[in-house]
Amino acid sequence: MPILNLRRLLLLLAVTTMFTATPSTDAQTTGWKPLRDLPGADSMATVVRSARRIGGGGNVRDIRFDETHAYWLSSEGWRRVDLADGTIEEADAEALPKRAGRTGGRGGRGGARPARGRQLTEARSSAEPWTAVHLENNVWIRSDDGVELPVTTDGTEAFRYGTASWVYGEELDQTDAMWWSPDGRYLAFYAFDVSPTRDYHLVDGLTGLRSEIKSERYPKAGDPNPIAGLRIFEKATGEMVTVDVGDDTDQYVYAVRWTPDGSELLFNRTNRHQDHLEVMAANPETGACRLVVEERQDTWQRNRPMMRFLEDGRRFIWETEKSGWKQYELRDLDGNLVNPLTGRTALTEDFPVESVVKVDEDAGVLWFTMRSSSTPLNNQLHRVNLDGTDARILTSVDLNHGSFRISPDGRTVAAMRQAVDHPPETVLYGEDGVELAVLARGDDSGLAAAGLHGGELVKFLAPDGTTPLHAVLHLPAGADRDAVAAYPLVVDVYGGPESRGPSNTWSPANSLCELGFAVAKIENRGTIGRGKAFEGATYLRLGGPDLDDQVAGVKAILEAHPEIDPERVGITGHSYGGYLSALALVRYPEIFRAGVAGAPVTDFRNYDTIYTERYMRTPAENREGYDAGSAVKLAGRLEGALLLLHGMQDDNVHPSNTFQMAAKLQDADIPFQMQLFPNATHGIRSAAYRSSKWSFLQEHLDAASTAGKSE
Predict the structure, then answer these.
(1) Pick from 595, 656, 616, 663: nearest CA to 635
(2) pLDDT of 481-524, one tens digit each?
(3) Domains recognised in the chain with CATH numbers
(4) CA triplet 571, 577, 578: central angle to 5 degrees?
(5) Pick from 558, 490, 510, 514: which is nearest to 696 by CA?
(6) What is the pTM of this model?
(7) Between helices 545-560 and 576-587, what is the axis angle to 10°?
């Protein structure tokens, strides 16, 4: 970073401590207090303890099946239910069938994970006593008895082997960069050219005696990208081949893995717009590649669709959104569609699948969840034969289902179901979706005694007039529902692409309400789990429909709850939520009186290529969209109270985002507040972060008078 820029940075930091404002401005503050000293803080712990006790009793830890009965461990001991007529009786604890474990989709990629945005520096062969090591931009292999052999020797910082770059780690979840074949014969690894990319500089050591410059290769929206290649090394012969990943230097090459039998190296390849995904298979002897499966979208294509192999190692369950809804297909490595699995009948064609619960290859059945309820936040359990026939729905109530236990013969399933305002209960369903028995019910009778109103699922329409949306609302304990404009509202937001909105799960309280607020989490378009049209609604328009939906949710809550004051609405979030919080105050100053933006992207020109261009394309292609969603461009419209929070070591959302917003506001002589954390990265773990945020909101929304009423 040039010396001139460093001087300007230091000047900006100095100026931010000396805001001038007229006494009447709403953006003045008396300073922040530790969270523990805020009015209502003592009540937060009381509410947490109460909420833990309320709604319990609906979960069954141990469920077992035989051909005629289901057995479960109740609070009164072992009981059993007759699967034919639903008769419940005591069971002999000494004569129980084998326990049925919970079923669910395979977890994420297990094993060690590197620091955020990085790749692992070692990869151990599962077949032989060798470990691949990334060292000083080259790849070595090391035996367990200490023999070390170089695989590459010409690596440099600009052209590196066995690693990738920050943007691949952060945005493509590329946490590894070296891959042994299952038999240990081959080692594949990245050959990664970062020379086209530019550095971003942070100042490290801000609390030390001397500072230093910390640099990271970071391509911003529209910048040149790194160029990813692959090499395959044969250990026995020392031969090396270059994989033909394609000629497009702007493409992304990631999700590298071997086929189950190790005969080919698989990798995902997508164009820069990320609307065309290809899964490729490389021959390890020649490097030649062939296409296995591809997906195209008019907006953006998810970069890592599920690809779950069956036991034969050739067929796999593939996740596709080509119909507009996430569905499953059975495909094979030869590039053939064996048959669709979902989306073939009215039961599944207009809903998105959620996750695989169980694959029973002996019975030839796939069990999966799908958002097929009338309330689209709720998961329902489905099953289908692996040849695509006999599709059924197994759960039949409009509640959110999970924690499945499936009988060995597949004819009965136990599930836990719940909602924001419905405590968990464990239920038995038959193979045709008929409810056989309720095994345990959660008890919510303690709500009234604790002065809690419980969570509420608020339903409303998006501004398009057709899309149903939802918000989860909590009120302070002891809130007076007959009052008028007594309580401020805080919107707790994230809302970014490929994130999830609020969950419809049991939620008797939100302890933050004890600081004097009603607190809402509001669903918006652009998030996942609701179909491709819903997910793609913010394409080229980040900060548009997503923020509009947050405002529509606020209006719906205010209409349904006269006890909430429409003149005292605040918003807070971090990262993308910080972006929406800052943008909310300048796009909707008539709605939001105060906001706290943690680590916000204030203009998406500041963010990286892979994430930003997936949803916005480049600034040259979409200048209007970038401008419309820029809090910096709209900073002059700020009327409410704004607090900016940022870590000075944030290598993800750079501090320059906050500085650009601050400079615009200072140039316009508009008061605001800012707190910087010298040693914090993107996730700010300082207690002062939480304290300053809630102090600010409590003060500027006049919430102290309604805080702590539960005690």
Answers:
(1) 663
(2) 999 999 999 999 999 999 999 999 999 999 999 999 999 999 99
(3) 63-100 (no CATH), 109-303 (2.140.10.30), 448-706 (3.40.50.1820)
(4) 75
(5) 490
(6) 0.94
(7) 70
